[in-house]
Amino acid sequence: MKTIIVLAVSLTVLLLLITSCATTTTTHRERWYNEEVERLNIVKHAEELIGIRDLKKIDSVYRNDCSGFVIGLYRILGYKIKLDYPVASRRFTLSQLLFVNLRKYGYLYTTGVPKKADVVFFKGTVPSMPNRVSHIGIVDDVLSDRTIIIIHYGSRGIAEIKMNLLHPHTHKTKSGRVLNDFILKRGAGRYLLAAEHFAGFGDLYRFSTERNRY
Which of 50, 89, 132, 179 has the most CB atoms at less than 10 Å from its CB? Predict the structure, then answer.
């Protein structure tokens, strides 16, 4: 009789463990799936803005500059971007401030393949700030050759540019395929490429959903 009771208890515990593991696995899968869907939605909305110069006409949450586009896009889709303002932040641009916050909380990285809807930071795109973060865009896609398609707000409004960190000093391949778009002209006809100004990637989606929950 005791043997039967012990076996019954053991089976019950085993079933509970299996159910718990299955629930955990399902939850992880659901989170991953939901994140992928939400990232695709962010990118889709960014793509729909390509060609537009005056974002303020669409919604007052936007500003007509690079950081105003990125943060405005996230906020208009319901994501909360809460930033800390250090003492030195009075001298920061909004893109610098976002860079500092993502780095502080562990959402900044410089290696590996970025995910859709992550942000890309560039430094030195403003001549007066050669070593400081001064521009930002959103990762739209990553091609098979690791060329990254970025949507940003530039001199033409919302547009796509390409960046390939494996070939940072190459504009085009011999076949004419663009690896890096020009992002800045620096005197005497010298143009600098996107990868030459790369400062880092940031997971703004997780920064918003993990640190800035409503």
Answer: 179
